[in-house]
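step=encode ok
step=design start
structure_in=
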């Protein structure tokens, strides 16, 4: 069977691994399983146009090209869940059971952010041609900017130093396990494991929606990626981007 990672390249410095991977795809120079790890990003990308900050040589800044043609684009959350679980599996191995996935695609340890995932897609008509999965994971960094006070790294959790390049290669192994499970049709298992790994599952969280603050019980997620919560009166389903998680 073809390896999940076709090639693994280390780049000393780049604006964004996702940008680079997308450029390679558009130039027809990339195929499924091509991965790029940057030692430094000058303009790292996060969700909703935010930047991803990382110290040089200390963390995982990885993008992988995928060809999820076995899924229709409307089922995109399944890929998000599979990639999120692969990252979760690696972090949990070293950081332990306080590792969680904060909906939809952040990695948390306790109440602090350890990493994030950004998946960008190329879709034509109803065919999913390519996805670029960008992963940022805090590994050895111990000093974070003041506005990132809730960030945490594997070194801070364990007191140990890690080889970020070797850890990124190990991450690819965990991603492969989850991706191949999804490709084999194990969608229910992926969703079950994602729900079980969710941050604040069965706990009350303060949310902000339409300018109003209120508490709701986190119940899980639908197969379409909607957050399921319960208020005093109703069970609600929220689309990502329509509600702010305050805690």
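sequence_out=
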């Amino acid at each position: 069977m073809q390896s999940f990672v076709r090639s693994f390249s280390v780049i000393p410095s780049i604006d964004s691994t996702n940008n680079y991977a997308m450029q390679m795809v558009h130039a027809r120079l990339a195929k499924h399983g091509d991965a790029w790890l940057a030692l430094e990003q000058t303009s790292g990308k996060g969700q909703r146009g935010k930047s991803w900050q990382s110290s040089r040589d200390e963390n995982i800044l990885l993008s992988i090209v995928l060809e999820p043609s076995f899924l229709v684009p409307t089922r995109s959350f399944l890929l998000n869940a599979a990639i999120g679980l692969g990252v979760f599996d690696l972090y949990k191995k070293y950081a332990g059971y306080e590792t969680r996935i904060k909906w939809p695609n952040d990695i948390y340890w306790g109440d602090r952010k350890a990493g994030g995932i950004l998946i960008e897609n190329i879709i034509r008509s109803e065919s999913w041609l390519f996805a670029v999965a960008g992963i940022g994971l805090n590994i050895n960094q111990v000093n974070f900017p003041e506005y990132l006070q809730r960030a945490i790294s594997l070194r801070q959790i364990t007191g140990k130093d890690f080889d970020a390049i070797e850890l990124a290669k190990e991450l690819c192994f965990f991603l492969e396990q989850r991706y191949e499970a999804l490709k084999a049709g194990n969608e229910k298992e992926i969703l079950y494991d994602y729900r079980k790994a969710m941050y604040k599952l069965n706990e009350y969280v303060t949310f902000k929606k339409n300018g109003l603050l209120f508490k709701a019980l986190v119940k899980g997620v639908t197969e379409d990626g909607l957050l399921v919560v319960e208020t005093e009166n109703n069970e609600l389903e929220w689309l990502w981007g329509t509600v702010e998680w305050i805690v």
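step=design ok
step=annotate ok -> The first strand starts at residue 7 and ends at 11.
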